[in-house]
TrEMBL record:
Entry membrane topology: Multi-pass membrane protein
Domain Major facilitator superfamily (MFS) profile: 1-234
Subcellular location: Cell membrane
MF annotations from Gene Ontology: transmembrane transporter activity
Bilayer-crossing regions: 27-46, 55-74, 80-102, 114-135, 141-162, 174-194, 206-225
Listed GO CC annotations: plasma membrane
Coarse class of the protein's main subcellular location: membrane
Organism: Lactococcus lactis subsp. cremoris (Streptococcus cremoris)
The protein's name: Major facilitator superfamily (MFS) profile domain-containing protein
Keyword entries, A-Z: Membrane, Transmembrane, Transmembrane helix, Transport
Pfam families on file: MFS_1 (PF07690)
Keyword Oxidoreductase included in the entry's annotation: no
C-alpha cells in the first residue's frame, strides 16, 4: 500500500528526470498495480507448495533487490520493469504474511491482529505522500525506493530469527483453470478502472476493458467455487 501512495508525489519528479509526459510516467504506478494483482492469487498456492516462510523470505529478498534496481534505473522503461518486479513480489508478501499470522496467533487474539494489520492501510494514504514529499524535496526521486532496503533487510532478519518453519505440502496441486483466468481477470479489470479514472468512465477503452475484466472475474469466481483445490478460497 505504501509503495503505491508514496509514488503520487514522486511521479512528477520522475517525469522530469526522464523527460517523459504524464501518460507515460503513470505506468510506474499502473505497472506495479497490475503486477501485484497478477501475483496475489498465486500466493496461497506458492506458500502451501514450497513453505510459507521460504516464499515469504524470497519475496522480501527479491522485492528489496527490485527496489535497489529501481532506484538506479537510467530510463523510464527500466524503472517500469523493476516496478513490475516489485509488484510481483509485493503481491506475494501481504497474503502470505496474513496467512502465517493466522497460523501462529490464537483464535481469541486474531481480532486484534487484524486491527494491527489494517492500521498501515489506514495510515499509508497520509504517510506515503508526506514521506515522499520530504524525500524528493531534500534528496531525489530514487530515495523513495532506497528506503525499502533497510526495511527489507530488517524484515529478512526477523523472518530468519523469529518466524517458525511452516511445512510445505508437496502434494499441493495448482488450480490450472484459475491460474489461467486470474492473470487476465484482475489486471484487465484494474487497467479498465485506471483508464476510466484517467480519461472518463464513458471512454470506450475503459468500458471495454472493465467489461472483459468483469466477465473474466465472474468466470474465475465460478471456477473457484467448483474446483477441489481453488487458487482462492471464496
Amino acid at each position: 500500500m505504501m509503495d503505491t501512495t508514496i509514488m503520487n508525489v514522486t511521479l512528477p519528479h520522475i517525469q522530469t528526470a526522464f523527460h517523459q509526459n504524464l501518460s507515460n510516467s503513470q505506468w510506474v504506478i499502473t505497472a506495479y498495480t497490475l503486477a501485484m494483482a497478477t501475483a496475489i492469487p498465486f500466493a496461497g498456492f506458492l506458500g502451501d507448495r514450497f513453505s510459507d516462510k521460504r516464499i515469504f523470505a524470497l519475496a522480501i529478498i527479491f522485492f528489496t533487490i527490485a527496489s535497489l534496481l529501481a532506484a538506479n534505473a537510467h530510463s523510464l522503461q527500466s524503472l517500469i520493469i523493476w516496478r513490475i518486479a516489485q509488484g510481483l513480489t509485493g503481491g506475494v508478501v501481504a497474503p502470505i504474511g496474513i496467512g502465517m499470522s493466522f497460523k501462529v496467533i490464537p483464535m481469541e487474539k486474531r481480532g486484534s491482529m487484524m486491527g494491527i494489520l489494517g492500521l498501515p492501510m489506514l495510515l499509508a494514504p497520509t504517510i506515503g505522500p508526506a514521506l515522499s514529499g520530504f524525500l524528493v524535496k531534500d534528496f531525489n526521486w530514487s530515495t523513495v525506493f532506497l528506503i525499502n532496503l533497510p526495511v527489507g533487510i530488517l524484515a529478512l532478519i526477523f523472518i530468519l530469527l523469529f518466524l517458525p518453519n511452516f511445512p510445505a505440502n508437496k502434494a499441493s496441486k495448482i488450480d490450472l483453470k484459475g491460474a489461467l483466468l486470474s492473470p487476465f481477470a484482475f489486471p484487465i479489470l484494474i487497467y479498465g478502472v485506471h483508464i476510466g479514472a484517467d480519461k472518463g468512465w464513458s471512454n470506450p477503452s475503459a468500458i471495454a476493458f472493465m467489461s472483459v475484466g468483469l466477465l473474466m472475474l465472474l468466470l474465475f469466481i465460478l471456477v473457484e467455487l467448483r474446483v477441489e483445490n481453488p487458487l482462492l478460497h471464496l
